[in-house]
Design brief:
This protein has 117 residues and is of the alpha+beta class. It contains 3 helices and 5 strands, in the order E-E-H-H-E-H-E-E. The chain is elongated, with a radius of gyration of 15 Å. The relative contact order is 0.22.
C-alpha cells in the first residue's frame, strides 16, 4: 500500500479528563500514514494528483485549536475523519500520543486505522 508519512507532527491541544488538563494546552505527537488516492502522481509529478501534507498539517492544527477533547481516542478519530472526508484518502492510520503526561513514559496514546466507505 502506498502512503504519505508524517512523523512526530507536534500540535498543542486542550485534551484530557483531569482538572489540570482542562486549562493548559498539551503537546500531542502525531504519526500519520495516509493512503495515496491513486497512482497518477507517479507519472505526473504533480501535487494535484496526491494529498498535500502541508495542507493536512494545517487542518490538523486548526482542529486542535478549535476546541477541547476529553480523550486522545476522540482526537485521533476526528483527525482520521478529516483526512478521509476532506482529502479523500482511501485509508488512514493515526497515532496520537500525549507527550510527558505519565511518569516514566515518554508518550501515552492510541493508534487507529480507518477506511473510506
Amino acid at each position: 500500500m502506498d502512503a504519505i508519512l508524517l512523523r512526530d507532527l507536534r500540535v498543542e491541544a486542550l485534551i484530557g479528563i483531569h482538572r489540570r488538563e482542562r486549562h493548559a494546552p498539551q503537546t500531542v505527537s502525531l504519526d500519520l500514514d495516509i493512503g495515496l488516492p491513486g497512482e497518477a502522481v507517479f507519472a505526473s509529478d504533480r501535487v494535484a494528483d496526491t494529498i498535500d501534507y502541508e495542507k493536512v498539517a494545517a487542518r490538523i492544527r486548526e482542529l486542535a485549536a478549535s476546541g477541547r477533547f476529553r480523550l486522545v481516542e476522540t482526537f485521533a478519530e476526528r483527525i482520521a475523519r478529516l483526512i478521509l472526508e476532506e482529502f479523500r484518502a482511501p485509508w488512514v492510520r493515526v497515532s496520537a500520543a500525549k507527550v510527558g503526561i505519565l511518569a516514566n513514559a515518554r508518550v501515552v496514546g492510541v493508534s487507529i486505522e480507518r477506511r473510506r466507505a
